[in-house]
Amino acid sequence: MSAVPGDITIGMDSATLSTRLAHRRSRIVRERIIELVLFLAALVSVFTTIGIVYILIKESVVFFQEVPFWDFLTDTQWTPLFSDAHFGIMVLLSGTLTSSVVALLVAIPLGTIIAIYLSEFAPFWVREVAKPFLELLGGVPTIVYGYFALLFVTPLLQKIYPGLPGFNLLSAGIVMGIMIIPYVSSISEDAMRAVPMSLREGSYAMGATRFQTAIKVVVPAAISGIASAYILGISRAVGETMILAVAAGQQPNLTFNPLEPAATITAYIVQVALGDLPHGSIGYQTIFAAGLTLMLFTLACNIGGHVLRKSFRETY
Amino acid sequence: MEYAKDLNEIRVLIRRHKRWDMVFGLCGLLALMIGVLTFVALFADMAVDGVPRLGWDFLTSFPSRKPQQAGILSAWVGSALVMLVTAFFAVPLGVASGIYLEEYAAKNWVTDIIEINITNLAGVPSIIYGLLALGLFVYTFGFGQSVLSAGLTLALLILPVVIVATREAIRSIPQGIREGAYALGATQWQVCKDHIVPYSMPGILTGIIIGMARAIGETAPVITIGALTFIAFLPAAPVQAEPPFLNFEWLLSGFTVMPIQMFNWTSRPEAAFLHNAAAAGFVLVLMTLGMNGLAIWLRYRLRKKIKW
Are A248 and A257 in contact (CB under 8 A)? Predict the structure, then answer.
């Protein structure tokens, strides 16, 4: 055993020295073990993704052995539990797309206006009050929004348009849009506030008003962040479940008319899960095929958002 | 003369532009008001329909076929037990991942994969987690449609929230703190457990509370794993009088949770059940608002108090 670095050996007998060295060794080993444990904890999230992909693909492979892939994409009926079974995902996709479009027509304009207002116009105290409030709006459980859509918004819309059925994509979509506003507005606002003050000052110095500065300078400079906020909104809308399961009805219906009831991919999964389908039956596997479709859709959105952020990122 | 006319035109122009400023400011306030009004309407709607049903009996009765006698006992007990499991897994895993990524991780492709992966997971719809749990926990691991499956599912769901909050809290600690501790001979783990974790505690706590508030209101993944909608019994109590005092039977017990109970009542046609749904919804909104409010308040205090 050679001398350890430093002068801790001075005036130390060999017994003390060896206990110190043993202590030091155990300390190094302990550090390594702790690092390994922390690393394993971080890996859990990777395993979650692997698990999701594995389960969805495993069950979908079985499904596609029974149902031709082409039929899945082109069939215009979705009746997996009938004796004359059809598996046209288009039917469910139409409901998902229609409700998402309605939601985005609400969330994107309102969310953007709120973001511009809070970032460029609002006095300090309004922002201090409004931001936590929006956060609370985003924290309300979606089942509560579903109840609200079915029993408050739908009756309200029926006063304007008496022919509206009790279940419809419109009211579910509107409420979903309001639910998404906080996501869109907070990310857009963060992006706008990250735009350096000097850009605004330059614009004001040229005699531009606040509105002109906001629209012509700040928004273009923050466009990548705003776009990724929209994409997050889209993936929220597509994946939203309970509002649609409660307020949009659970009948598969190939329609792009928001005034009709229709089931979405997510509502279908809920409907099947509530029933008593045996494990391994074709009906059981349909929810994984539907889930895979949904997963691919949101994955495309997430990757798109990532690419947008990377490629349009302005550096000041 | 020419000059005065120009000046007038410019004044008109300025006035017009200023008017646009006003108009947009009003639009912004209006948009904000739509959000606020929706929130108020939602809260009032729940309160008006539900509050008359609230009472001690509502909290201590099982669901029933008779709406007047039905209550949310099994639902809130189920929610509490599921949250216990969720916190037990999500908090240590999330905080440990956050510490690893901020303090230990080397800049290499493994770290990149973990980071991209966490960002992606945060965007995965919650019902997909339900499908994962159905395939993995319920059938592959054989946990069945139990409290344990639901707790694990929700733990995975809120893991990104806890990780991101932990990382942000840790990142705001100045480098000087670490350097000071290292200079005194502390190991990396000693720096973490004695300095990094305590100082980032309020931020981590905020993340945990927001995550738990989200988990308590999540319906879709819990329905997907096949939670029952009508439960008239309680899982075995986790604590008992005889040794070994702790009882883990409840982990594998069937259960229902608050949002599912509310969904079940919402999908019934009778108005009396809808009132029950509103009452359950009111309790649920109060709980999530309370938790989110607490988190916001914590963050607010944190921002005011800490000056490095």
Answer: no
Q: Do A169 and A237 belong together in one domain?
A: yes
Chain A, residues 253-282, CB within 8 A of chain B, namely 266, 269-270, 273-274, 279
Residue A71: inside a domain: no
- pTM as predicted: 0.87
Choose from A54, A63, A143 for mutation: most chain B CBs within 10 A: A143
- Tell me the per-residue pLDDT of B34-62, one tens digit each, with 9 for 90 and over: 888 888 898 898 888 888 888 787 887 78
B48 and B180 belong to one structural domain = no
Structure ipTM: 0.87
Is there a single domain that holds both residue B63 and residue B131?
yes
- Residue B239 scores a pLDDT above 70: no
Q: How far apart (Å, rounded) are the C-alpha atoms in residues A199 and A145?
A: 40
Find, in chain A, the residue whose alpha carbon is nearest to that of B259: A143
Alpha carbon of A298: minimum distance to chain B alpha carbons (Å): 7
Q: Does A160 touch chain B (CB under 8 A)?
A: no
Residue whose C-alpha is closest to residue A287's, from A81, A143, A95: A81
- Give yes or no: residues B231 and B254 share one domain: yes
Q: Which structural domain, as residue segments, surrounds residue A223?
A: 89-312
How crowded is residue B20: how many other Cβ atoms within 10 Å of its Cβ? 14
- Domain match, A61 and A101 both: no
Chain B CB contacts of A295 below 8 Å = 124-125, 128
Tally of domains within chain A: 2
Q: Write out chain A residues lying below 8 Å of B136, CB-based.
A: 51, 55
Q: Nearest-CA neighbor of B129 among A56, A249, A247?
A: A56
Statement to judge: residues B30 and B108 lie in one domain: no
Q: What span, in angstroms and rounded, lies between the C-alpha atoms of A25 and A13? A: 18
Residues A47 and A128 grouped into a single domain? no
Most A CBs within 10 A among B10, B38, B298, hence the mutation to make, goes to: B38
CB contact under 8 A, A52 and B124: yes
Residues 6+ positions from B80 with CB-CB distance below 8 Å = none
Residue B96, domain CATH: 1.10.3720.10
Is A26 within a domain? yes
